[in-house]
Amino acid sequence: MINIMKGTKDLLPQESYKWDKIEREIKEVTRLFNIRKIATPTFEHTELFLRGVGDTTDIVNKEMYTFLDKGGRSVTLKPEGTAGVVRSFIENSLSQLPQPLKMYYETSVFRYERPQAGRLREHHQFGVEIYGADTPHQDVEVMLIAKTLFDRLGIKGLELRINSIGCPTCRKDYNEALKAYFASRESELCQTCRERLIKNPLRILDCKEEKCKEIAANAPSVLSYLCDPCRAHHEKVKNLLTEEEIPFEEDDKIVRGLDYYTKTVFEFVAGNIGAKSTVCGGGRYNNLVEEIGGKPCPAVGFGMGIERLVLTMETVGASFGEEPSPDLFIANIGAADEAFRLTSVMRAHGIAAECDVMGRSLKAQMKLSDKLKAKFTVVLGESEIAGGVVKVKNMKTGEEEETAIERLAEYIIQKKANV
Ligand code: ATP
Ligand code: MG
């Protein structure tokens, strides 16, 4: 017996309708916001992520699935969704399309992490990437996309936390202030943070070690270092959120796990609902396109973990909708071929129809129809075929009605509309 690899998960047929629900709502929300889908490969040149994610991040330092392919190239499985989209944006000259260019992706994400609830080595993300606009309106629209999805999925109680981490201009002074502060407590920091202190002190604010978190809590606030334009941008984001009546909290310790953010960063956190975890994280990354080799282009987006979304929905008791079931089960007594054919005819009429293909007894077929939660059942036998009439049983009410086989599709469609 070969077991599944640690930190990975099967999506089983009896659970997949939950993901279907999420996918349907993603389709609807992206339609409402006029966002097109983009899909990029599962693996890319390692270099893309070194540059795009940043070499002082946990992702690049400890979590990437990197290997040499048979041609000796260094290849990495996507550890996040943005870098590939940026590469594609540049490579395909997508800046030629009307801006802002609004895109979304659904993808597997691979990170070598210590597996635990809501933390996998392969997880899935829905993400949004919007290129070309540098306004607070665009930031807030991105938050609204996530918020609309949560609302449609029936998830209440997620906290929106926002922060601004400024631009390279204000970050310089802030980095100095952070360095001075953390240097005074260097001996108490974890080994990784001591390295971060030299390379990128901002990263210390994202450390998961308890002691480092405690020290970081009293670090200088980035908000008091923002330059005038960044401050104005941040104030406007807050005003717009207030106007949209979206509750939020300012949290000056949010820096996000990736190096490329500028100005606005935000998270939706399941604070009071179950395990405290981030369901969605995002922000603005105005320098990333240039960093990867394109012409400067402002961008903003988010990534949302589907597994954590499902967990959160389960925790709050949100509805995943009805499990899919056949509209009609066509049982047969010695008429497997006729039932098989009639099932095809029903499907051609748009009816989800099912029949027995395992030679079951009538009793076993009825049991199966029950288990599949078919809405209607008919039994096809010699006399039904000869008379051209079947009895249709409504499985919910137990009522039976006769109809001509010729008119069966019409009958089911009409009854379904009235259920
Ligand atoms: P965390 O702080 O929990 O490690 P992160 O900052 O690394 O999260 P992002 O890189 O922003 O997360 O990814 C976006 C979203 O993807 C997260 O908010 C979360 O919902 C989900 N996610 C991230 N890592 C994992 C994982 N290992 N397993 C499952 N979901 C994940
Ligand atoms: Mg992480």
Number of domains: 2
CATH level 1 class label of the largest domain? Alpha Beta
Give the mean pLDDT.
95
Shape: elongated
Count of DSSP H/I helices: 15
Helical coverage, percent range: 25-40%
Model description:
The protein has 419 residues and is of the alpha+beta class. The chain has two domains: 16-167 and 227-316, 2-Layer Sandwich (BirA Bifunctional Protein, domain 2); 328-412, 3-Layer(aba) Sandwich (Rossmann fold). The protein is 39% helix and 21% strand. It contains 15 helices and 16 strands. The strands form three sheets. Strands 1-5-6-11-10-9-7-8 form an eight-stranded mixed β-sheet. Strand 12 (328-332), helix 12 (336-348) and strand 13 form a beta-alpha-beta unit. Helix 1 packs antiparallel against helix 5 (136-152), helix 2 (46-53) crosses helix 4 and helix 5 (136-152) packs parallel to helix 9. Bound molecules: adenosine-5'-triphosphate and magnesium ion. Residues 58, 257 line the site of magnesium ion. The site of adenosine-5'-triphosphate has 18 residues, from strand 6, strand 10, strand 11 and helix 11.
Topology, element by element:
Layout: H1 16-32, E1 36-37, E2 43-45, H2 46-53, H3 58-63, E3 66-68, E4 74-77, H4 82-91, E5 101-110, E6 122-131, H5 136-152, E7 159-164, H6 168-183, H7 191-199, H8 210-217, H9 228-243, E8 249-250, E9 262-269, E10 278-284, H10 288-291, E11 299-305, H11 306-316, E12 328-332, H12 336-348, E13 353-355, H13 362-371, E14 376-380, H14 382-387, E15 389-394, E16 400-404, H15 408-418
Parallel strand pairs: 1-5, 7-8, 12-13, 12-14
Antiparallel strand pairs: 2-4, 3-4, 5-6, 6-11, 7-9, 9-10, 10-11, 14-15, 15-16
Helix pairs in contact: 1-5, 2-4, 5-9
The protein binds adenosine-5'-triphosphate and magnesium ion (MG).
